């Protein structure tokens, strides 16, 4: 499933690892999305594929998929919960443990804040195929994972879309 992570230190506003000044600028109104335990907006141009079982299966992870968004460039933003809650003091270790073998450019866990809830964030690249940003936060007894996976060339634009999701995120 997805993994979100942030560790130690002062919590900052969630900002994707990429340069926040992205080439994609939202021009149309976003579509509201109501997930289990949260609400957010679907960025313009992205499609809600949460009910698409085949798309969910492609995420290859344990836990529940609560939101699955696909970009025209085939980038994916997914949110869900882990199979078992992860302790607050274990979030960074959890993210590190689920980073795929052979990943490159693996960032150190960084603190994040999603609508007032502290978590951990990491980014990595799987060879030249995909770049991933993952976060984990604990809210209401669940460990929520939020992930962006896309081609390295599309990362800046798709990270801007992820930031839109995070900026509009509220816990229900």
How would you summarize this macromolecular structure in one to three sentences?
The protein contains 3 helices and 10 strands.
Query: According to CATH, what is the class?
Result: Alpha Beta
Distance between the amino and carboxyl termini: 21 Å
β-strand amount: 35-45%
Q: Architecture in CATH?
A: 3-Layer(aba) Sandwich
Order of helices and strands: EEEHEEHEEEEHE
Categorize the overall geometry.
globular
Number of distinct helices: 3
Helix content percent band: 10-25%
User: Number of folding domains?
Assistant: 1
Walkthrough of the structure:
- This protein has about 170 residues and is α+β, with helices and mostly antiparallel strands.
- It has a single domain (about 30-80, about 90-170), classed as 3-Layer(aba) Sandwich (Protein Transport Mog1p, Chain A).
- It has helices spanning about 55, 90-100, 155-165; strands spanning about 30-35, 40, 45-50, 65-70, 75-80, 110-115, 115-125, 130-140, 140-150, 170.
- It has a seven-stranded antiparallel β-sheet with strand order 3-4-5-9-8-7-6, sandwiched between helices. Strands 1-2-10 form a three-stranded antiparallel β-sheet.
- β6 and β7 form a beta hairpin.
- About 40% of the residues are buried.
